[in-house]
Amino acid sequence: xxxxxxxxxxxxxxxxxxxxxxxxxxxxxxxxxxxxxxxxxxxxxxxxxxxxxxxxxxxxxxxxxxxxxxxxxxxxxxxxxxxxxxxxxxxxxxxxxxxxxxxxxxxxxxxxxxxxxxxxxxxxxxxxxxxxxxxxxxxxxxxxxxxxxxxxxxxxxxxxxxxxxxxxxxxxxxxxxxxxxxxxxxxxxxxxxxxxxxxxxxxxxxxxxxxxxxxxxxxxxxxxxxxxxxxxxxxxxxxxxxxxxxxxxxxxxxxxxxxxxxxxxxxxxxx
Length: 271
What we know:
With 271 residues, the chain is mainly α.
């Protein structure tokens, strides 16, 4: 593979200069239709220099394709390199006799390569069918906006794809990248507000503690034996058999005492 793909990933903006994987995108060559045809014939004849030149002449096509995945949190260098793999596969498999423009043939292969990469290396595994639904929804939305100059409603998008609105919402949620609870969402005067600050802790909320205190009070109202059995069963995690063995009574007695104790506690909590 050429030095283009072996260079360490670097993204740099200086004025209008943008480098991706060490490639200055502002200076990428553009091949004419005739040049592409000539180079492709030489490639099929085994000309490595022509192959190198053809790859460089089609890197703008890769850039165009990866722009469709701008909503992805993946590093643009990684997407560019994966797109280049798709480009090379397209070059190796292109058939001149089919009378098809190379870009028409290459785009789906580059997109497919990037989709496989996003599917296989995502931090959270998502089924292929969900990903396919999500990407179809994205492309359908873009096409609708081009034709109608407005965003489609969820109902219109669902009708276009022939799936339910719930399936689209579920699929779009599934491909979202996870974010850290400590990721800042707002900063003012040196004070940073993180996602964690906006998430309520239901487990340790006021209602939780009120309920917990009420249960403790209900527990104290029980006779000593019933209280002990409830503590053994629900606080110490012991089975009825283990509690019966420790208290030297039968499991049936433990079950009967436990039910009576729980009934008394419910009565206390609901009055």
